[in-house]
Amino acid sequence: MEVKIIRSRRRRHSVSARLINDLLLINAPLMLPQERLDKMISGFKLKFERQKLKTELDKEKNLWDLASALNAKYFDDKLKIESIEYATNQNSRFGCCNYRTAKIRISHKIVLMPKWVRKYVLIHEMAHLIEPNHSRVFWDIVCRYKLTERARGYLMAASTSMKEGD
Ligand SMILES: [Zn+2]
């Protein structure tokens, strides 16, 4: 990502950023210290990179396809999923599921993990559509997937800073 900074005397406080193809155009006040501006630019870069990644990921319909296949295999096609998509701003969890809206978000961090682990993460979140808590019933559902224990071990080892999600 190339960065172009335009400093303007008329600007007093606000810094704006626009992404034009691969050029990050920054408008900043003339007197803003470079060090502060650099920090802000890193923030903008991160935000735009995440947006880009998310767009790319969503373009691949495979998340929806996988969820549909799992719905058929493990849930008798009974789950009504409103939406399932990748989230790039989810750093502490592998997935989350809103029980009421039936919207599932999956961390982009699992994209590069083996398929059997991704399946587990999806099944876990999908099972929350039936049971919002990590109850005995919940785990009975999830454990229909035979690789559940292995996948949980994998995820635990993959990251100590991330939780499985709720
Ligand atoms: Zn959970």
Structure commentary:
The protein contains 5 helices and 6 strands. The model has no long low-confidence stretch (mean pLDDT 89). By secondary structure, it is α/β, with parallel strands linked by helices. The strands form 2 sheets. A 3-stranded mixed beta sheet has the order 1-3-2, with helices on one face. The chain has helices spanning 34-59, 62-75, 115-127, 136-142, 148-158, and strands spanning 2-8, 16-20, 23-29, 83-87, 95-98, 103-107. A hairpin with a 4-residue loop joins strand 5 and strand 6 (103-107).
Write a brief structural summary:
The chain is 43% helix and 20% strand. By secondary structure, it is an alpha/beta fold.
Summed up, the helix count is: 5
Given helix and strand content, the structural type is alpha/beta
Query: What are the low-pLDDT stretches, counting only 5+ consecutive residues below 50?
Result: none
Mean pLDDT: 89
- Distance separating the two termini: 35 Å
Number of strands: 6
Q: Layout of SSEs?
A:
Blueprint lengths: L1 E7 L7 E5 L2 E7 L4 H26 L2 H14 L7 E5 L7 E4 L4 E5 L7 H13 L8 H7 L5 H11 L8
Parallel strand pairs: 1-3, 4-6
Antiparallel strand pairs: 2-3, 5-6
Helix pairs in contact: 2-3, 3-5
Bound molecules: zinc ion.
